[in-house]
Amino acid sequence: MHTGTVKWYSHEKRFGFITADSGGDVFVHENTLKAAQLDTLLIGQKVSFTADLKTPKPRANSIMVTANPERRKSVEEFEEEWGLRKS
């Protein structure tokens, strides 16, 4: 089991990324959330997950929320912060 923090998740796009505590980003798809009976992930949530982190494009196979963020950033705030959204 690995641990990390939700970097970004879009309910509209049905995917997002976790920053693993050991380094690197891990893809997470909506189907993984459904299997864990989760509706969405919040930026900054602490999670435990299974994945093969040695592959070129790691993907979470299972996930469990372990702690919620103090303040939730909106998807818009995240996209602006990372230059993914033009003002």
From TrEMBL:
Transmembrane segments: none annotated. One of its GO terms (cellular component) is cytosol. GO terms for molecular function: nucleic acid binding. It comes from the Bacteria. Pfam families: CSD (PF00313). Residues 1-65 form the CSD domain. SUPFAM superfamilies: Nucleic acid-binding proteins. This is Cold-shock protein. It comes from Metarhizobium album.
